[in-house]
Amino acid sequence: MLIELDRTSTVPLYRQIAEQLRARISSGELVPGTRLPPERRLAAVLGVNRTTVVNAYRELAADGLIVGHVGRGTIVADPSRLHEPGTPASGIPWPQLFTPATDVMNDPLLQDTMLVSSRPDVITFATGMPAPELYPIATMRQLLDEALHQAGQSLLQYCPAEGYPPLREALASWIAPSGMRFGPDDVLVVAGSQQGLYLLARALLEPGDIVAVESPTYLGALQVFRAVGARLLPIPVDQHGMRVGLLEDVVARRRPKLIYTLPTFQNPTGTTMSRDRRERLLALAARYQVPVIEDDPYGALRYAGESIPPLAALDQHGVVLYLSTVSKILFPGFRIGWIAGPRPVIERLAILKQIVDLDTNPLAQWAVWAFITRGLLDAHLERLRRHYPERLERMLAALERYATGVLEWTRPAGGFYVWCRLTDGLRARDLLPEAARRGVAFAPGESFHPDDAGTGTLRLNFTFPPVTAIEPGIARLAEAVQALRSIRLNGEGSRRARVVAPIV
C-alpha cells in the first residue's frame, strides 16, 4: 500500500495524504484497529513537514475515521460507530491493546524490502542468511537418525535450561583456541543469539537505561533494546570499527548501562575493530564498570588478513559477555546460540530463560554437539571459507563494472556483507521501488542506524544469492541507481518527481 504525493498539484499535501488514507479506510484496506505510523515517522518517509501529517490526521479525526490514544498512537476507528452512535464495537479491539514495545518491528522500509524479496523473480541481496546450497543436509540427516535411534527418548524430553551438558562442554572447548577462557558452567545455550540478546537486555536493563551501540549496527539488537525501554547512544563506525575515542568522550558523562558491539565483520558494515581499539574499549569498560556485549556471529568466517582475538579473549577484568550462534555458520533454522560470561550472569540468565521457554530443543543441541566433537563443524567452515570468497569477489567485480561512479563500497575481510554508499545525495528509500521494478532487493542502511542517519547507505549480502545471480543482480541495481539519478536530474518539479512511499 502506497501514498503518492503529487507536488505539482494544487491540492495541498495534507489533503492528498488524508484523502488517500480515507479511501483505504473506506475500502477496508485499513481495518478498524490498524495503527497508523507516528506523525514524525510518516513525515520522514514522505519527505514532508510533520505539520503536514498532523493536519492530515486531524482532518481524518474530525470525520471520526481515526482516533488517537496516549501511549498507543493513532488508530483506525470502527466505522460502525460512525453511523450508529452508542453501538459497541464487535469483539475486542486488539490492536488498541498492544503496548508500544510491540511496534519495534514496524519499519516501513524493512517491510517493503521483505515484500520485494519474497517475489520469486527477485534477486535478493537483502537477507542475512548463509548459502542454502552449502547446508550439510545429508550429514545432518545421518546424525539425527543416529540420535533418534540411540537416545530418542531422552532427547525428545526436556533438558536443563542451561543447555545440553555435553554441548556446553563442547562449546567451551571449541572457542578456547581463540583465547577465551570459559568452562562449561560459564556457557548458556540459547535459542539463537536473538534470544540471547533478549535475555541479556531483560536481565541488565530497566526502562530509561542508556546502551551505547555502534551506528550502524545489527537491527535485531536495536529492536530488543528499544523493546525493553532503553535509550540508545549511537557511536559511529569507521574502517577500524567502533570509534572508541568518541565513546571515551561520552561514557564519563552519560554513564551507559551497557556497551553493545560486533567487533568482527560487523553487521551491516563488514568492518573489523582493530586490536588497539579493542584494548582501549576493554580498559574503558573496566574503568567505568560497564559490561560489554560482544556479538560474534561471523568471527569464524575470515577470508583475508590476520585474525584478531575476540574481546572476550583479551578481557582481563570479566567485563565481556560473549554471544554467538551457529545460524551463520551452519543452519539458521536450528536456533542454537550461546552466551559465555561470568558465572553469576549465566546463572541469572538461566533462571530468566526458564520463564521464557524452559529449554532449547535438545535434539538440535545434540546434533550441534556431534557436529563439533566429530570435527564436522571445522570441516564445514573450511568449505565455507573456500566458497564465500568467490562470491565476494564476484560481487566486488560486478560493482566495479556496473556501479562505479554511482556507488561507493568497502571490501570486507570476512562475514556476509558489502556496505555501500549512494553518491550525489541519493537516498536508499527512494531506490527501493526502482530496484523492485528491476527485480533486485537490498537492505536499506538507515534501518540499521539508531538515529536518522544512513539515508544514503545500503547493505548487500553476497553469501545467500546463487553465484550465477550476483552479477546480473548488481547490474539491475546499478540500472536502478541510474534511473533514480535521471529522475532526480530531469524530474524535479514535475509529476515524475512525486514521492512514492509505503505506510505500513
UniProtKB/TrEMBL annotation:
<dbReference type="InterPro" id="IPR004839">
    <property type="entry name" value="Aminotransferase_I/II_large"/>
</dbReference>
<dbReference type="Pfam" id="PF00392">
    <property type="entry name" value="GntR"/>
</dbReference>
<dbReference type="InterPro" id="IPR015422">
    <property type="entry name" value="PyrdxlP-dep_Trfase_small"/>
</dbReference>
<comment type="similarity">
    <text>In the C-terminal section; belongs to the class-I pyridoxal-phosphate-dependent aminotransferase family.</text>
</comment>
<dbReference type="Pfam" id="PF00155">
    <property type="entry name" value="Aminotran_1_2"/>
</dbReference>
<dbReference type="InterPro" id="IPR051446">
    <property type="entry name" value="HTH_trans_reg/aminotransferase"/>
</dbReference>
<dbReference type="InterPro" id="IPR036390">
    <property type="entry name" value="WH_DNA-bd_sf"/>
</dbReference>
<dbReference type="InterPro" id="IPR015424">
    <property type="entry name" value="PyrdxlP-dep_Trfase"/>
</dbReference>
<dbReference type="InterPro" id="IPR015421">
    <property type="entry name" value="PyrdxlP-dep_Trfase_major"/>
</dbReference>
<dbReference type="GO" id="GO:0003700">
    <property type="term" value="F:DNA-binding transcription factor activity"/>
</dbReference>
<dbReference type="InterPro" id="IPR000524">
    <property type="entry name" value="Tscrpt_reg_HTH_GntR"/>
</dbReference>
<keyword id="KW-0663">Pyridoxal phosphate</keyword>
<comment type="subunit">
    <text>Homodimer.</text>
</comment>
<keyword id="KW-0808">Transferase</keyword>
<keyword id="KW-0804">Transcription</keyword>
<protein>
    <submittedName>
        <fullName>PLP-dependent aminotransferase family protein</fullName>
    </submittedName>
</protein>
<dbReference type="GO" id="GO:0003677">
    <property type="term" value="F:DNA binding"/>
</dbReference>
<keyword id="KW-0238">DNA-binding</keyword>
<keyword id="KW-0805">Transcription regulation</keyword>
<dbReference type="GO" id="GO:0030170">
    <property type="term" value="F:pyridoxal phosphate binding"/>
</dbReference>
<dbReference type="GO" id="GO:0008483">
    <property type="term" value="F:transaminase activity"/>
</dbReference>
<dbReference type="InterPro" id="IPR036388">
    <property type="entry name" value="WH-like_DNA-bd_sf"/>
</dbReference>
<feature type="domain" description="HTH gntR-type">
    <location>
        <begin position="11"/>
        <end position="79"/>
    </location>
</feature>
<comment type="similarity">
    <text>Belongs to the class-I pyridoxal-phosphate-dependent aminotransferase family.</text>
</comment>
<keyword id="KW-0032">Aminotransferase</keyword>
